[in-house]
Amino acid sequence: MKSQATRVSLLHHGLNVLSVYGLSGVTLGRLAEAARLSKSGLFAHFRSKEQLELALLDEAARLAHTHVVEPAMEAPAGLPRLRVLVERWLGWASRAGLPGGCPVAAALFELDDREGEVRDHVAALEQEWRALLRSLTASAAALGHLRPETDVDQFVWDLCGIYLSHHASARFLRDPAAETRARHAFDALLRRAGAALPS
Amino acid sequence: MKSQATRVSLLHHGLNVLSVYGLSGVTLGRLAEAARLSKSGLFAHFRSKEQLELALLDEAARLAHTHVVEPAMEAPAGLPRLRVLVERWLGWASRAGLPGGCPVAAALFELDDREGEVRDHVAALEQEWRALLRSLTASAAALGHLRPETDVDQFVWDLCGIYLSHHASARFLRDPAAETRARHAFDALLRRAGAALPS
DNA sequence: TGGAAAATAGCACGACCGGTCGTATTATGG
DNA sequence: CCATAATACGACCGGTCGTGCTATTTTCCA
Q1: Is B169 in the A-facing interface, judged by CB distances under 8 Å?
Q2: Please, which pLDDT band fits residue A81 given cuts at 50, 70 and 90?
Q3: Inter-chain CB proximity B108 and A111 less than 8 Å
Q4: What is the domain-level CATH number for residue A87?
Q5: What pLDDT score was predicted for residue A199?
Q6: Is residue B25 part of a domain?
Q7: b/e per residue B27-39 (b: at least 16 CB within 10 A)
């Protein structure tokens, strides 16, 4: 069962590399060095580079789940839960201890014009995530926290725009106003959907 | 003066590779093969890989200028010009003949956690672009097409979110509704800023 | 048209890539 | 406590990376 421990360590170091350098920057040599393991020792845990990438993406999703989804699920259903989720979503990577940005967001722009299993996996993760956003939004509407005729798909699409714009302005432009901008945009989106003003 | 011609050819092929594979995917060997030139013949045109990357980014900006900014400048100042700009901006890369997505948007997520001249160059291009957006938005407000108290910075920030969300949903998710979603979001943004309904 | 100058090709380099193999070490179940 | 299977190691494979150096070809002007 020592294998499990080193695998955890590999995924941990791999996520650090991934969040900074992107999928194409996760190299067997680099990861082996970061995890203080020989390249071949590392390779025994993942039968190929592609398997490693898939495992890292899953680990990123798992990390996001514990840092974003789980806390949100403790809030009351409807708008409060949606609010907490968005609050935890924006900039979650830093709060989860990653040295770089959100690996999935980066993959969205890194793999957009390529084919293959890795791309498909990212697409599945992203669709899963958007389904969750839709579900929480629809709940908020069903509970009367948002206008019942709210266009849920459009709402989620706009929300993703806020996330991406926040990521770009916070991580790339390093604009200290990123948080404020995102909050204003989210408030405007909620207002447009008929939400009551925040407490 | 034959050098100029091959340089143009190199930049052209380089942009194709860049838009699909990102900055890290632009490799001397790959580009040399695409341009039917020897690796060393190519290398003579750019004294280093970094110089090549900078030249490619500039070429991308030049291409965007002719395909996005110039057509917009022919529209009447104020809101009409802003509308044309946004119309031309979303999905401009495909319309400009690139096989992939917007190189700058991809670079925003590829280089966000790295340092160096290339990152600085992308940052400069992006700031320049956002300054243009701010300028056109402020003009629209000054001309009474938008509410005078419009928060220009927030408006531009939201606009960038629409662009990024459109890029992600159109290029990565390949959602055919991307155009509609972006149009709705932009209309809502304009309405919120007090614009008259579109013709 | 000849000859200087510019442009391109050829080649070699060290580093690193993903991946394989045989061996040594280590952990664990009987 | 030992046999055995799991785990990690070092060396190495064929390729490609970016980058120099040196020929060779091509272009351009006098």
Answers
A1: yes
A2: very high
A3: no
A4: 1.10.357.10
A5: 52
A6: no
A7: eeeebbebbebee
Question: CB distance B161–A164 less than 8 Å?
Answer: yes
Contacts of A185 in chain B (CB under 8 A): 154, 157-158, 161
Q: Say whether residue B144 is in contact with chain A using an 8 A CB cutoff.
A: no
Strand D proximal residues, B:19-58, Cβ < 7 Å: 26-30, 39-40, 43, 47-50
Helices (H), chain A: 2-21, 28-34, 39-43, 49-64, 70-73, 79-89, 92-95, 103-110, 117-142, 152-167, 178-192
Domain-embedded: residue B152? yes
- Domain count for chain A, please give it: 1
Q: Report if CB A47 to strand D is under 7 Å.
A: no
Q: What domain range is A149 assigned to?
A: 50-192
Size of interface A-B (CB pairs under 8 A): 132
Tell whether A117 is covered by a domain: yes
Say yes or no for a CB contact (<8 Å) between A161 and B157.
no
Residue A122 lies in a domain: yes
Taking the C-alpha atoms of A103, A96, A9 and A74 in order, what is their torsion angle to the nearest 10 degrees? -110
Instruction: Give B 24-63 residues with CB within 8 A of chain A.
Output: 24-25
Distance CA A15, CA A146 (A): 37
Could you tell me the pLDDT band of residue A2, with boundaries at 50, 70 and 90?
low
Q: Do B112 and A101 touch (CB under 8 A)?
A: yes
Interval B1-16 mean pLDDT: 88
Contact B141, B150 (CB under 8 A): yes
Model confidence pLDDT, tens digit, residues B119-144: 999 999 999 999 999 999 999 999 99
Please check whether residue A42 is in contact with residue A35, taking contact to mean a CB–CB distance below 8 angstroms. Answer: yes
